[in-house]
Design goal:
alpha+beta, eight-stranded antiparallel beta sheet, 8 helices, globular
């Protein structure tokens, strides 16, 4: 299934408006190893200086660190959220459900995304590979997302907090109506938009696919 090209390009424009956006892929892959990430290690992995990394992180009020100043969350996080990705290497959480759905592509590793409908509290279970959605329970589940135009000062507040999984379009409708700009799509469509986005960015991981 090919994603709608307009949706992919809108998502591309949004991510490019996020300060230090290339760091997100490196943070995800390092946190997937299960340990907090020293800033020096992130800088080395990204090919940036420590000063450049710190300057970019300073633009994100929601960045999560431990007591030693190591990174534990930036899009991907070690701290539990409503959106969990479980794979053979462990567990990683997302600030939004779309983050969790991107992890298989970023890591080249299939697994299970679990979330919960904020309206009905229905558990949502998604089996996903790096190449596509394998199953969704309940089958009518949908996801929400927002793609603001212009610079994004706080990605968690402006984007991630509005990205949830819902048991159905009916459950999502009143919630989405309360937040201008929020769109609702099927789980498969949301996954495919972001898979194509990650491919265009050169971030789709190869070699670990299962």
């Amino acid at each position: 299934m090919m994603a709608n090209e307009t949706d992919v390009q809108r998502s591309m424009a949004t991510i490019r408006n996020i300060e230090g956006f290339p760091l997100f892929v490196h943070v995800t892959r390092l946190l997937a190893l299960g340990q907090p990430v020293p800033v020096a290690r992130l800088a080395q992995t990204a090919g940036w200086t420590v000063e450049e990394v710190e300057a970019a992180l300073a633009r994100h009020p929601a960045v999560e660190r431990d007591e030693e100043g190591r990174l534990v969350g930036l899009g991907a996080t070690l701290r539990p959220t409503a959106h969990r990705f479980t794979f053979s290497g462990g567990t990683l959480y997302g600030w939004c459900v779309s983050d969790a759905l991107m992890f298989p592509v970023l890591l080249g590793q299939g697994g299970t995304v679990t979330s919960s409908c904020p309206v009905t509290e229905t558990p949502i279970l998604i089996e996903v590979s790096p190449d596509g959605i394998l199953s969704v329970d309940p089958p009518e589940a949908v996801v929400s997302r927002v793609r603001p135009e212009g610079p994004v000062d706080d990605v968690r507040t402006s984007i991630c907090n509005l990205g949830n999984a819902f048991a159905s379009r009916t459950a999502a409708a009143p919630w989405a109506a309360a937040y201008p700009g929020v769109e609702v799509s099927t789980v498969a469509d949301d996954f495919e938009v972001h898979r194509q986005l990650l491919i265009e960015l050169g971030w789709a991981q190869e070699g670990l696919r299962s």
